[in-house]
Amino acid sequence: QVQVAESGGDLVQAGGSLRLSCTASGLPFDVISMGWFRQAPGKEREGVSCIGRSEGSTAYVDSVKGRFTISRDNAKNTLYLQMNSLKPEDTAMYYCSPIPSCSVSLALPKYDYWGQGTQVTVSS
Q: What Å distances lie between residue 48 and 1, 76, 113, CA to CA?
C-alpha cells in the first residue's frame, strides 16, 4: 500500500523560508519520480516541482523558479522542498505524490496517492 506523509508547513512572514518533507512507503522510492503540488483556497491543484529518480532531473513552475529547490534522499525515502523568499501567493496546502516521470508540464498524476498535505501560510 502506497502511503505518503507531508510535513513542515507553517505560518511565516513574507521573505521567510520553510523546508517541506515528504516520506513515502510502499513503493520503490529510489526508482520513482516524485512531485510537489499545491492547492490554494478556491483554486485547482497545480504542479510546483518534480524530480526524477536522481537529482539530475528537476522542473519548477515559473512562479517558484529561483526560490524553491527540490531534492530527495533515497536512503530515507524522503522528498524535500526548500522554499525561500516566500510570498503571500505561495499560501496553499502542499502535497507530494509519485509521478510517472518528471517533465516541465508538471501534470497532476492519475494516481490517487495523495497524503493529508501540509499547510503553508505566508503573511504579508
A: 25, 22, 17
* CB 6, CB 94: distance < 8 Å: yes
Cell numbers linked to 108: 497532476
Pairing of strands 46-51, 58-60: antiparallel
Instruction: Write out the chain's pLDDT in tens, 124 residues.
Output: 999 999 999 999 999 999 999 999 999 999 999 999 999 999 999 999 999 987 679 999 999 999 999 999 999 999 999 999 999 999 999 999 999 999 999 999 988 899 999 999 999 9
- Residue-wise DSSP of 27-93: S-GGGSEEEEEEE-TTS--EEEEEE-SSTT-EEE-GGGTTTEEEEEEGGGTEEEEEE-S--GGG-EE
Under a CB-based contact definition with an 8 Å cutoff, are residues 48 and 64 in contact? yes
